[in-house]
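Collaborator request, handled under Task 6.
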Amino acid sequence: MPRVSAGHLSARREQILGGARTCFSRYGYEGATVRRLEEATGLSRGAIFHHFRDKDSLFLELAQLDSRRMARVVAEHGLVQVMRDVLAQSASGEGDGTGAVSWLGTWLEVSRRLRTDPAFRADWDEHSAELTRAVRERLTRQREVGVVRSDVPVEVLAGYLELSFEGLISHLAMGLPAGELRAVLDVVEGSVRSR
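Structure tokens returned to the collaborator:
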């Protein structure tokens, strides 16, 4: 049996993650059947589950990747930029193919599963701390240079931004019009800045 290169395995894994992202976004976690995952990835169930133990571990990997990407954007540009990216993706109906902007579908499923699946919640709690930490660290750095207001504790500002993010996700999930949401995000951003 010929050996498969690490590059080939890595490319195959990325192919699975890309197809699975599309499948989970289109059908949700429950609707992303193994057959649909096979169609979306162009691979057999054996190939998919060679790389991932089961559907749950595949979804958790996508959610973790998105959380890490979001944490990097937060560290550089803030949580409001993540919200702007999600809004732009929602308006265009597509991501950029790398997952850097296609967070909406995954985040909707994460929110739903956090409410309904205690085992998923336990796994997610271990991995979501990076995003929470990135929000607080950015706010602290921005406060130190006078960009973020100092009359409200960082934890409260972080909670406010996280609540705004969840509200945006809920709004988009309900299919409500995005109309003035860019302006709303301007208000959210302005409200945490120093005067």
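The cover message to the collaborator said: "The chain has two domains: 1-52, 54-192. The longest helix spans residues 118-144. Please let us know whether this matches your experimental observations."
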